[in-house]
Amino acid sequence: MLEQTLTFEGFGVVSACNGSEALAVARQQRPSVILLDLMMPVMDGYQFRIQQQLDPSLADIPVVCISGTHNASRAARHMAAAACFTKPIELDALIALVRSMVQAE
Predict the structure, then answer these.
(1) For the whole model, what pTM was predicted?
(2) With contact defined as beta carbons under 8 Å apart, do 43 and 49 qualify?
(3) Which of 48, 60, 53 is nearest to 24 (CA)?
(4) Is 100 in contact with 80 (CB distance < 8 Å)?
(5) Predicted pLDDT at 85
(6) Topology (CATH) of 2-104
(7) Which of 93, 102, 78 is nearest to 10 (CA)?
């Protein structure tokens, strides 16, 4: 649903099913913003963020964490994420944030 909504809002969206796939996609397509679910199979959002920060070609891409966990905001701060949204996501706020991040690029 989030992918469809952002596409409808005019954003180019690519998605991945897990953190390992997301790293490969990010290296290939270099997104303006990464929306990162913290709970993913194979490589979770925490592991993804570590690998992203270690990669000079990806380290400067801002990350917005998305999670249903109760400690998501604390985890996002610890990971130096630009923002954090807990589920259920307030779509209007997320769209506005992504729009401002893309325009600032």
Answers:
(1) 0.90
(2) no
(3) 48
(4) no
(5) 93
(6) Rossmann fold (3.40.50)
(7) 102
Q: How far apart are CA 60 and CA 83, in angstroms?
A: 14
Amino acid at 80: A
Judge contact between 84 and 69, C-beta under 8 A.
no
User: What span, in angstroms and rounded, lies between the C-alpha atoms of 77 and 64?
Assistant: 11
Q: Provide the edge-to-edge strand list for the sheet that holds 83-86.
A: 34-37, 63-67, 83-86
User: Would you say 79 and 85 are in contact if contact means Cβ atoms under 8 Å apart?
Assistant: no
Q: How far is CA 46 from CA 25, 35, 59, 89, in A?
A: 17, 13, 14, 19
What torsion do the CA atoms of 30, 81, 103, 93 make, to the nearest 10 degrees? 120
- Summarised one tens digit per residue, pLDDT across range 61-84 is 999 999 888 788 888 888 899 999
